Amino acid sequence: MPPRPVVPGSTAGLVVGIVALAGGLVLLLPLVLAPIAWYLGARAHRHAEREPDRWRAGGPAKTAMILGMVGSGLLALVSLLAVVIATLTWVAIASPSPY
Question: Of the candidates 31, 44, 6, which has an alpha carbon nearest to the alpha carbon of residue 82?
């Protein structure tokens, strides 16, 4: 009996997750792809759970979900840090200096 095929969309989610994390560690901009990887992985995982006899569960779908979660967490941290830096910069510029 041949092995069951991988769920459609799970490999795409895996690739997007790898690009998001690897590129995000270098440039930060690709981190915006992390929620897409999370969504693609979760959708593929749900699809595999609905039809377990047809599709192979786990593997790329779960990995895409995990990469998407980690990338989304990093995206949230970077966004929070950007807001804090922007706020501190605005306060520093807006407040009169005694010098």
Answer: 31
Is 34:71 a contact under the CB 8 Å cutoff?
yes
| Under 8 Å between Cβ of 72 and 34 | yes
Domain annotation covers residue 3: no
What whole-number distance in Å separates Cα of residue 69 and Cα of residue 76? 10
Which residues are registered as beta bridge partners of 6?
A: 56
Report the alpha-carbon distance of residue 33 to residue 20 in Å, rounded: 5
Q: Give the pLDDT confidence of 69-79 residue by residue, as tens digits.
A: 999 999 999 99
Q: 48 lies in a domain?
A: yes
Residue 16 has pLDDT above 80, yes or no: yes
In a domain, 5, yes or no: no
Instruction: Please answer whether residues 9 and 37 qualify as being in contact, where contact means their C-beta atoms are separated by less than 8 angstroms.
Output: no
